[in-house]
């Protein structure tokens, strides 16, 4: 059974049913061999094999032993997808060393760290990931960070391809973390030129989560979170039309510098930038998922909107950020926190390009601790979520217009191995999960 968990408190009272017949003599308890034979109240129409501990008010068609990872109806065809090998030479260890994008024309572009030289390489596929063009080197000796907090990203608008990452330009303390990106024309024959950087103030030496996004007219925007030696945690953006000069993003609360931020281009051409804000409530640090919106035609971010109905109190660095997806006229956001007790993944939905959000719902209430989600929405409005549950990762699907997600599917690659750090992407009628074998490091696509 699946219950959609809204942000409210649900109290369920349960009773204990004890059934049986016994005789008590001299303090001894003896069980009658056949208690139903001499029970004058016994209902002769009752099924004697019925389990008296079953819920008599429950759904008689429900199977209490149902496996929450299986398809109980046999109709969830998305479980019968195909696995496609992307690369066998990827860095086998580390987190978030790859990314995938699907363009409006249906082309796939992937970037990944190659094990032999520790450089970033990119490839293109025009047949849904079945075959790939030759891998092209992107980086040239940079120390590109690949932690849970910072990862490489690849984007394309079918004209250009950009790969951005955080370049660790100085080791030790204070280190220097700088956004850097390379660009190529789109197509099978990628060729990346020299590096690009924004003229960031050197005092802001730690610059996290750099990402690029396209406006509707093709203009490129850059976003990042700056955290300098003065501990001035701030959000910045830079526009191609302004020479990528850094511009401060006006916010009422500072961004969490260790929680992944996310930049999204919506169907209408708006840019949405989400992060976890942090603010001190007496002695407790609160962290809220918020989104800023640059409406199509605007040259600034505004509309600071909180996406959750609660504030997460945590005096620690959670390394749990916000991810978004847009499609079929809606925008979705996912994040994880412990506001409900265990680690829980939440999904929020907006039908007005982020101006307002429905109360968040729990993605799956049958799991234990679950976190680190990614989300995608396809052209028909189906929602896809990947997340971490303990030592495994799951894929979940919710049909357009449905309230609940189907039973989750544990992601096991064709070698039968668990995977790590899956990313789900959907566009142009294509949906794919890119992920990595935890043993061999091979990169795979799963297409539901």
Describe the structure.
By secondary structure, the protein is mainly β. It has one domain: 6 Propeller (Neuraminidase). The chain is built from no helices and 31 strands. Strands 15, 16, 17, 18, 19 and 20 form a 6-stranded antiparallel sheet that branches. The radius of gyration is 26 Å and the shape is globular.
Write the layout of secondary structure elements.
Layout: E1 22-25, E2 28-31, E3 82-87, E4 98-102, E5 108-113, E6 120-125, E7 136-137, E8 153-156, E9 160-170, E10 176-185, E11 207-214, E12 220-226, E13 234-239, E14 247-248, E15 254-255, E16 262-265, E17 271-281, E18 284-294, E19 302-306, E20 312-313, E21 323-327, E22 330-337, E23 344-350, E24 361-362, E25 370-377, E26 383-389, E27 392-398, E28 409-410, E29 419-427, E30 430-437, E31 443-447
Antiparallel strand pairs: 1-2, 3-31, 4-5, 5-6, 6-7, 8-9, 9-10, 11-12, 12-13, 13-14, 15-17, 16-17, 17-18, 18-19, 18-20, 21-22, 22-23, 23-24, 25-26, 26-27, 27-28, 29-30, 30-31
Rg measurement, Å: 26 Å
Sheet with the most strands, sense and barrel status: 6 strands, antiparallel
Shape summary: globular
Helix content: under 10%
**What would CATH call the architecture?**
6 Propeller
First-residue to last-residue Cα separation: 23 Å
- Specify the oligomeric state: single chain
Name of the level-1 CATH class? Mainly Beta
Identify low-pLDDT runs.
1-65
Q: Mean pLDDT across all residues, rounded?
A: 85
| CATH fold call | Neuraminidase
Q: Care to count the β-strands? A: 31
């Amino acid at each position: 059974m699946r219950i959609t968990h809204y942000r409210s408190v649900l109290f369920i009272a349960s009773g204990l049913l004890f059934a049986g017949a016994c005789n008590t003599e001299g303090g001894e308890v003896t069980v009658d061999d056949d208690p139903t034979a001499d029970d004058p109240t016994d209902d002769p129409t009752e099924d004697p094999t019925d389990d008296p501990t079953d819920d008599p008010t429950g759904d008689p068609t429900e199977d209490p032993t149902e496996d929450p990872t299986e398809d109980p109806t046999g109709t969830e065809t998305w479980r019968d997808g195909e696995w496609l090998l992307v690369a066998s030479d990827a860095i086998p260890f580390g987190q978030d060393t790859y990314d995938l994008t699907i363009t409006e024309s249906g082309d796939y572009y992937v970037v990944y760290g190659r094990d032999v030289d520790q450089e970033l390489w990119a490839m293109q596929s025009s047949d849904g990931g079945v075959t790939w063009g030759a891998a092209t080197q992107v980086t040239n000796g940079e120390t590109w960070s690949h932690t849970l907090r910072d990862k490489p990203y690849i984007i394309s608008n079918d004209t250009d391809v950009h790969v951005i990452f955080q370049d660790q330009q100085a080791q030790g303390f204070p280190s220097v973390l700088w956004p850097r990106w390379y660009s190529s024309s789109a197509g099978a024959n990628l060729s990346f030129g020299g590096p690009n950087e924004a003229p960031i103030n050197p005092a802001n030496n730690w610059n996290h989560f750099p990402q690029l996004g396209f406006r509707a007219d093709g203009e490129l925007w850059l976003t990042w979170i700056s955290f300098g030696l003065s501990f001035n945690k701030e959000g910045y953006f830079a526009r191609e039309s302004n020479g990528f000069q850094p511009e401060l993003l006006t916010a009422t609360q500072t961004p969490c510098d260790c929680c992944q931020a996310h930049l999204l281009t919506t169907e209408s051409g708006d840019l949405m930038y989400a992060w976890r804000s942090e603010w001190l409530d007496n002695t407790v640090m609160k962290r809220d998922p918020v989104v800023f919106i640059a409406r199509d035609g605007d040259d600034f971010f505004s509309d600071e909107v909180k996406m959750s109905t609660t504030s997460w109190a945590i005096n620690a660095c959670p390394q749990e950020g916000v991810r978004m997806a847009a499609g079929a006229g809606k925008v979705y956001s996912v994040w994880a926190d412990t506001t409900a007790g265990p680690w829980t993944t939440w999904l929020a939905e907006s039908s007005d390009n982020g101006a307002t959000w429905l109360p968040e719902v729990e993605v799956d209430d049958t799991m234990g601790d679950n976190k680190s989600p990614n989300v995608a929405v396809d052209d028909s409005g189906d929602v896809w979520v990947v997340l971490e549950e303990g030592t495994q990762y799951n894929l979940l699907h919710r049909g357009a217009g449905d309230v609940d997600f189907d039973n989750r599917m544990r992601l096991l690659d064709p070698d039968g191995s668990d995977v790590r750090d899956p990313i789900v992407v959907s566009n142009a009628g294509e949906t794919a999960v890119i992920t990595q074998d935890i043993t061999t490091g091979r990169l795979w696509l799963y297409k539901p």
